[in-house]
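FORM 7B: Structural annotation worksheet

SECTION A. Query
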Amino acid sequence: MSYQYREQQFYNVQTDDHGKFLTPFQRRLLLKNLQLELRAEYRRRIEIILLSDMGQSQAQICALLGCSQETARYWIAMTQAGQAHLWDQTPVGRPKTVNNQYLDRLKDLVNHSPRDYGYPFQTWTAGWLSKHLAKELGIEISDRHVNRLLKSMGLSSQQRRTACQPSEEDSKNSNIVIGTLQASSLPEGSSLWMFQSKPRS
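SECTION B. Predicted structure
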């Protein structure tokens, strides 16, 4: 079916205000938007919505518009659920995926304190890294995926704890002295036991 014929068919619907799912107002608004210069994907959404409101089946819509079954099924369901007004609010295409910019920024964040970015806590969690990067770069991924990315880069959201080395001041104030025991300093009657691991057979 040609584009002009299809468009004319939609405008003929305007006189018939008895669609299956849309109110007369919704139908007129969609027809008005169809007259605007829209991206092809948005135009197709409106056409799917109007055709489903006219009683066309998923197979008929796919044949008329040349769209995928998944797209037709989704927008038919949205129409039936009363969500046709969201035709322009759902993003077109696949969601953004992790790229080099995301990985570089993730590495940079892990190497700085969250307090540098206005957060009240001292260490990052995968959840907060995910939220911060979603806000900053618009790429949303799960906490688990953030942890996988960190692991693949040899990083962790938790700062590594270093073994505490006592300062000289602490050592001077301590009453504990570590030294080499001399055999002569052992109390009489005490013996040392030597343990050796048994060889595996």
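SECTION C. Observations
Residues 40 and 75 are 15 Å apart (CA to CA). The chain is about 45% helix and 0% strand.

SECTION D. Sign-off
Analyst initials: ____
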